[in-house]
Amino acid sequence: MKNKIVAGNWKMNKTFSEADDLIYAISEGLNDMELETDVIICPPYPYLEMATDAAEESNFTVGAQNVSYAEKGAYTGEVSAAMLKSMDVDICIVGHSERRAYFKETDEELAKKVDQLLANDIVPIFCVGETLEERESGAHWDKIGGQLENSLFHLKKDEIANVIIAYEPVWAIGTGKTATPQQAQEVHAFIRKKIEEKYGTETAYNIYILYGGSCNPGNALELFSCQDVDGGLIGGASLKAEDFIAIVNAAETCTKND
Ligand code: PGA
Q1: From atom 9 of ligand 1, which residue's Cα is the shortest distance away?
Q2: Of 2, 164, 200, 220, which residue is most buried, by most CB within 10 angstroms?
Q3: DSSP 8-state class, residue 180
């Protein structure tokens, strides 16, 4: 039986003192729980150290939201995987649909980011997902399959074993429009099948596939109960300690009921 993963993606939200309050409130909430779920918090870069300090006294790990495709050097404004590692950051989101859409990140660039992270022992949370237009025209299978092939399938079996995948339908992110459990399960099963075809049954079984897109305390239990949904990548609802803890509780309930 696999435990679940619940990761909070704060995106570009919270001032320093608000971030401090939120980390404190989440830590307090988690400390009261006997956790089986792996909880990850991904704050903006400037708050990473605050988060890793708090994580020492609590039961969550800290992730970044982005990383440079380059190793080091003259890349003003960028942050390298080695820098993250040197700050005890062990996880990093890559290829979020907002990065793909607003910053024009391509599958090829994302493959390099994944390589940088793995070379520095950081677990990538690699995001895939289709737009509404792609779903309505039935192009979502090719889109998601292509994202996996282009950015992950150059990896060796022991490398992909260290990757977490997040399915985040673009039409469900921050819109309040969640994929139904059936829609999520169908795509998660498809992703797992693709991994199985390329890397075999064991790797496919063990890999974590998270759902993201308007996940909240009201729908988390139903989504996480789907066979191939191994947890969630949470945006808006990770900005309120109470909601985030409620989602972690839903993950705990799923693991216990399994
Ligand atoms: P949301 O965002 O939960 O606010 O929809 C999810 C994400 O973008 O990771």
Answers
A1: 235
A2: 220
A3: P
Catalytic amino acids? 96, 168
| Cβ atoms within 10 Å of 19's Cβ, excluding its own | 19
- 203 burial via Cβ count (<10 Å: 0-12, 13-18, 19+): middle
Which residue out of 130, 164, 168 has the highest number of ligand 1 atoms within 8 Å of its CB and is therefore the one to mutate? 168
Q: What is the CA radius of gyration of the chain?
A: 17
Question: How much is the pLDDT for 238?
Answer: 98
Domains of the chain, start order: 5-257 (3.20.20.70)
Ligand 1 pocket, residue 7 CB under 6 Å: no
Q: Ligand 1, from 215, 219, 224: best to mutate by most atoms within 8 Å of Cβ?
A: 215
DSSP 160-178: HTT-EEEE--GGGTTTS-P
Q: Supply angle C-alpha 148, 153, 157, rounded to 5.
A: 125
Distance (Å) from CA 139 to ligand 1 centroid: 22
| Confidence (pLDDT) at 193 | 98
Mean pLDDT across the stretch 181-198? 98
**In the 8-state DSSP scheme, what is residue 125?**
E
**CA of 74 relative to ligand 1 center, distance in Å:** 32
Q: What tens digit of pLDDT does each residue of 102-143 get?
A: 999 999 999 999 999 999 999 999 999 999 999 999 999 999
